[in-house]
Amino acid sequence: MPDKATPTMDVVELILDDHRRMEDLFRDMRSVEAERAEALKKFADLLIAHALAEEAEVYPALRRYRDIDNDEVEHGVEEHEEGNEALLALLEVTEVGSDDWDEKLEKLVEAVAHHTDEEERTILNGARENVAMARREELGTAFTRERDKHLKAGCGSIDNVRRILKD
């Protein structure tokens, strides 16, 4: 694991950092002591930006490596859609902290945790084993640029999530 004092551009580490940030935001969304609606907004932006950046910059590049399972990459895209559907269901809940909120939040947690676990064990480990560090850093730069572009655009808005699911 790289020294956290020196930021890495390794796409694997950047994706893992996003996954850990999502877990932190899940904890905030569950806590009655946290600003749950604000945590959901941050989470929605991060989830959508992260997935769009992976699909635009990372997944297409990894498909070119014969030792990385293309079926797993395609499955990752499908799981992004499942996560987006669960996110939309939570965004549509009008009362933060209600039973409906808690139910929809747990479905979102389940969908995202399932995806991140599989992605970390299959796609990211495949990248660690088969993609040279220089290429992983190039992908990290492209991933960060794409993710940040979507974050600045407020990509996790309910209207944008609906649009993404329609496309």
Secondary structure: elements and pairs:
Elements: H1 11-30, H2 36-62, H3 70-91, H4 99-130, H5 133-152, H6 158-166
Helix pairs in contact: 1-2, 1-4, 2-3, 2-5, 3-4, 3-6
Structure description:
With 167 residues, this protein is an all-alpha fold. 78% of the residues lie in helices and 0% in strands. It has six helices and no strands. α1 runs antiparallel to α4 and α3 packs across α6.
What's the short version?
With 167 residues, the protein is an all-alpha fold. It is built from six helices and no strands. Helices cover 78% and strands 0% of the residues.
Task: Tell me, briefly, the overall form.
Answer: elongated
Series of H and E elements: HHHHHH
Spatial gap, N to C terminus: 37 Å
What percent of residues adopt helix (DSSP H or I)?
A: over 70%
Please tally the helical runs, counting DSSP H or I stretches of 4 or more residues.
6
Largest sheet: none
Rounded to the nearest angstrom, the radius of gyration is 16 Å
| Uncertain stretches | none
Q: What average pLDDT do the residues reach?
A: 92
Q: Indicate the structural class.
A: mainly alpha
The portion of residues forming beta strands comes to: under 5%
* Number of distinct beta strands: 0
